[in-house]
Structures are given as structure tokens and as C-alpha cells.
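Review form for a predicted model. The reviewer records the input and the model, then writes brief findings.
Reviewer: anonymous (R2)
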Amino acid sequence: MFIPQVVLLVYEKDAVSLLRAQLKAADGTVLYDSINSSQWTAMKTQIKNHVAGFYTDAGANVRIVDSSAGLASPYTVVRLVKGSGFPVNTWGYGGGCDFHDLRPNAEPADDMAKVLVVGHRWIINDAYQNSVPLPTLPLGPDNLSWSIAITVCHELAHSLGLVYNNTILGGTPYPLCHNPGTPPTGWQWHLMTGGSPTKEHLDPASNWCWKEVNTDYLKFILPKE
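Model under review:
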């Protein structure tokens, strides 16, 4: 029996306020409506379940929580932040991709995995302005929950060491650390490829998968048995 790697999802107050605010394009089109308290509560449950599902699929011994009550160190943190200081065309930030680095909570706050709200809002608006397909308009809480969960999975995996640029994992050089390549038939995107299409990133009906070499690595550093 192995102890799971606990991952705490932290939602910073200013980031949540911005995420929940209505997003409207310059022509007045509502890209997504404001999110009320009950919707936000449901979204947090969806995010946690989506992320847990992807890491369960990978066979990794990971437990996703969104409350620090009774939580003992060490644990890994992924933060939903406003993200004003990051490039606007970025969904999230992984905090590095050091091989075998589990990044416990002792890591500096500015070097943890992050989901960027400013980036999400900019990318959605930019897609609309440039006629890039979106799953629906206006987008709903389910779309945003999916996008945040995909970002959490991707950036958390960076913090866990994916995809390091070595002969084992074959990632692209730092700071990208992604897996190039085409996913298997029936799947639309690899979780660690990077540069994912906006539509799939926001569509809960889209099919995402891990590369086999990534699941092998996650099972090796976070075994269940």
C-alpha cells in the first residue's frame, strides 16, 4: 500500500471574482454569463472530479482535494490565480518540469502550477474575434470547468516532471516540456502536447488522453501497489 500524492486545488479570491464575472466581446456578444454561487460550487466539484478522473486513467496514485482542512504536509498545490503578470495567451503555468520532482508545498508560491484566469478570458475572446470555433455561445459553467480541469491536469503534470527533455520521456526542451505527436485513433488531443485548440479545451465532449510514456512515468513515481 502506497500513500497517495495529495494535490490541493487553491482558488484565490480575486481570480474567482474575475472568472465568475460575465465575459462580453467588443460587439456586445456574451461569451459567457456571470456565474452565481451555486454554479461556482458545482464547478469546483466538476473540476475536482475531472482532474481525479484523468489521473485515475493514468493509473497514478493521486488524490485531489479542494480544502486544506485536516490536511498534513507534504502535498502539492495547484492555484487558480488572476495571472495578470503572465502572457495573456496562456491557459496556465507549470512551474517547471524537473524529472521526478514532486514539488511539495514547500515550493515558493510563484513556482507552483497555476491556472490563469486572465489567460482563459483572453483566449476565449480572441477565438471569438478571429472566428475560431467555440463549442457553443454563450459558454456555460460546464465549458469553463472542463477547461480549468484540463489546465490543472497539464500544469500539475509539469510539476510532477512531465515532459522532461531526456531519452526516457522525449519532451521538447525547457521551458515547453511537451510531447509532440498525434494521439491514437479516436482521441483528439494528448494532455501533454501543448497548444491545444480552443474548442477542444472548452468542450467536455472532447476526447483527451495521456501518452503511454507519460502514464508509465506517473505510475512509476506514484505507484498504487
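Findings: Residues 5-221 form a domain with the Collagenase (Catalytic Domain) fold (CATH 3.40.390).
Further findings: The chain is about 35% helix and 15% strand.
Recommendation: see findings above.
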